[in-house]
Amino acid sequence: MWKSIVRGTEWKQVVDLASPSFFEVLPGKALRRATGALTKNWFDGSGFADACGHRAETLASSDVQVRLGGADAGGELGREARGQRVLELYFHQLFAGGPVLLDLRPERFEACGDALCWSPKSLWYAFDDAFLAAMREVYAGFYADDDARFQAGLDQVGLRCAEDTFLEHFGAGDQRAVSFDVHAFTETFHRTFLSCRDQGATLHRDFVPLGLYLATLYVHLEELGGAFDVRAAYDRVAQG
Predict the structure, then answer these.
(1) Where are the beta strands (DSSP E) in the chain?
(2) Would you say 100 and 94 are in contact if contact means Cβ atoms under 8 Å apart?
(3) Any bridge partners for residue 117, and if so which?
(4) CA distances (Å), 118 to each of 101, 139, 184, 234, in order?
(5) Cα separation of 239 and 184, whole Å?
(6) What are the backbone dihedrals phi and psi of residue 117, each rounded to the nearest 5 degrees, phi first?
(7) In the chain, which stretches have pLDDT less than 70?
(8) Are 226 and 59 in contact, with CB atoms under 8 Å apart?
(9) Which of 152, 155, 181, 158 is nearest to 168 (CA)?
(10) Fewer Cβ neighbours under 10 Å: the N or C end of the chain?
(11) Tens digit of each residue's pLDDT (9 = 90 or more) over 49-66
(12) Per-domain residue ranges of the chain
């Protein structure tokens, strides 16, 4: 059913990024549960309103300069400032808890003063607590250069099978100037899933919404162009 929702719609570009190998390492039952939840959420107006209300509260109490809703007054933000705010929003939702609004596509944002106003469509998901905790450990271990913590997080989500390609996804160097390329993102994840498939591993169902979330992030930042300080975005959110 979920494919029928996006066929011929604005979401086709994002869903088409899915690697065929992804579906070879995700059990059918897990895939049905994840896509079923996404489909249900899409039509759940009150649930979406609650998710937006929660996210508006967490953003208001944070240092992330993004707010929910349309802009009351216009503004201008440079490419770099806009990209940094979107990156901070990406990390904020994963670390602040609550349902995650997955729509980070560029057309859903507009400048409002020094901030970004965000009007996402109703693609949202409540991640499994254990999965989200493991992904936080993956990010924390990576940015702290703590290999043991990074690997432990990968073990918890079944991705130790593709540690090298997952590191490639994060990027080389100190992540102070990272360029975002949708094609490279797709290729890296394809090889990640092939590695897991070849080692007989299976993935957690929450990689479906996480993949959508990452895809919308990459689409946005590729359109902006240039490089962004991902480490600074992570540090700002994690320390906050």
Answers:
(1) 66-68, 100-101, 109-112, 115-118, 124-125, 178-179, 227-228
(2) yes
(3) 67, 110
(4) 10, 25, 26, 20
(5) 30
(6) -100, 135
(7) 1-23, 71, 73-74, 172
(8) no
(9) 181
(10) N
(11) 999 999 999 999 999 999
(12) 2-239
Residue 120 CA to residue 52 CA, distance in Å, equals 9
Neighbouring C-beta atoms of residue 137, cutoff 10 Å? 20
Strands (E), 91-175: 100-101, 109-112, 115-118, 124-125
Distance from C-alpha of 172 to C-alpha of 185, rounded to nearest angstrom: 14
DSSP class per residue in 132-162:
HHHHHHHHHHHHTT-HHHHHHHHHHTT-GGG
Q: How many residues does the chain have?
A: 240
Residue 163 phi, psi (nearest 5): -60, -45
Among residues 98, 150, 149, 145, the alpha carbon closest in space to that of 124 is found at 98
Tell me if 158 sits within 8 A of 196, measured CB to CB: yes
Quick one: which H or E segment has residue 119? none
What are residue 84's phi and psi, to 5 degrees? -65, -40
Q: Using an 8 Å Cβ cutoff, are 182 and 17 in contact?
A: yes
Instruction: Please return the burial class of 208, using the count of CB atoms within 10 Å of its CB with bins 0-12, 13-18 and 19+.
Output: buried
d(CA 217, CA 15): 13
Please list, in sequence order, all residues whose beta carbon lies within 8 angstroms of the beta carbon of residue 121, skipping any fewer than 6 positions away: 10, 103, 108
Token pair 């560029």 in the structure block, residue: 106
Q: Are 212 and 14 in contact (CB under 8 A)?
A: yes
What mean pLDDT, rounded, does the chain reach? 87
Distance separating alpha carbons of residues 39 and 51, to the nearest angstrom: 15
